Amino acid sequence: MVQALTQRAAGAALLVSTLGLVPAGSVLADAELGEEVARLRAEVAELRSEQREDWMTERRAEEVKALINEVLADADTRSSLHGGGVTAGHDGKFFIASADGNYRLNVGAFLQTRYILNINGSDPDNTGPDGTFDTSGSGNITNDGQGFQLARTELTFSGHAVVPELGYKVVLSGDRDGDGSAFSDDAYVSYDFHKFVKGLKVKVGHQKLPFTRQTLISDGYQLAVDRSSVDSLFTLKRQVGVDIGYKTDAYKLNFQVGNGANTNISDFNGDDAGNDADYALTLRGDWNVFKSDWKQSKDAIAWSGKPTALFIGGAVHWQEGGSETDDGFPFGDEYLGWTVDGIYKTGPFSVQAAYMQGLLHAEDQKDTTPWGVLAEAGYMLSPDKIQPFVRYEAFDTNLKGGATNHLATAGFNWFIKKHNLKFTADAVWVVHGEELKKFAPFGSDPFSDGLGFTDGEGGGGTSGDGQVVLRTQLQVLF
User: Of the candidates 341, 155, 356, 152, which has an alpha carbon nearest to the alpha carbon of residue 236?
Assistant: First the structure.
């Protein structure tokens, strides 16, 4: 179009010039000639104006095009959060990561909300509502209770930094007692030495001791509303220490040294230094019989489409010196604990079993040898949706005057979105139970309010023949 306008302008200009060379009166009258020249000049001006506007239009188009390209480039940079290419999204976990793969932050959350109805049967040695022991022998005391409980509230931060081999994990948990405080469940760094020795990994910091299988399975991947009472008694919970792990397709080993069983985050030179053990060593081994995916051992549920799996394990823990329980009962000068366990999954069926035993030795008292057994099973009635389950457990602290505790549990899971969104309901029946008076040298009170049992004033779980605990729970995990 610009070329056509230029040609028209040039033709008009040539015509004007030509007319200018013609003598007056030879072609047109002067008046007519003047009018024609004026007309042609106006047309040339108009053509020049059109040409200039067209040029300006093209110039503006180029400028707008360049501006758009700049905006798009800036948008690309901002969408990646950094000019170097940081990415964010969800690939099973919410994450922020660098494009080179050297940095990654995973963010997760976990909530368990429960409703609990506790019917505490009669027992002449049971604890009454005022927290005192009934010595009348009347056998009429009950300590019923019901209500809601925010059992677990957790935020998890994990990933790797600097290089993919250098991992980290921090879990912040809310206190269920309702005082608004938070504490660290896990806080450790790890390094994967696969470039040097395939399968070798070291973790340093606050972490679980590799002992009972139920404890090693995460809170959100359990079969029932919560872990068993026998596991609460024998678990070693957490300590600050170093864990050396080695894993192949067929087996794995974990050796851990730290501050001692159930010492959590402690400082060897701090105010609670007296609670730490002089030495604390834990060794656990697991055999993956069918060489299945190891992830199946971290979940108590048998999901559809998964191959048959069998994991058999055992662990031993020894520590010298150490802690007292909350009420001052001594751990003993030495403590030796051991366990054997297994989990089997095939089709819709899953079963888990374990045996645990301990030995507490003190110079000024008789050795104590507590023991416990656990068996639980689940079956998917509807694939990955409805799963009824049962559990039986028994344990005995072997204290003078004590007796064997027997508990039975039955319930079901409704997997709305697998573990990410599920509803669980169960009933725990204390077939026979003995008040332990907070004797829990290994882990937690097996009749704690955290498991739904009633709790006398000042702490200390209560059991008693005929106690029944009805529990429902909604879980959100991501």
Answer: 356
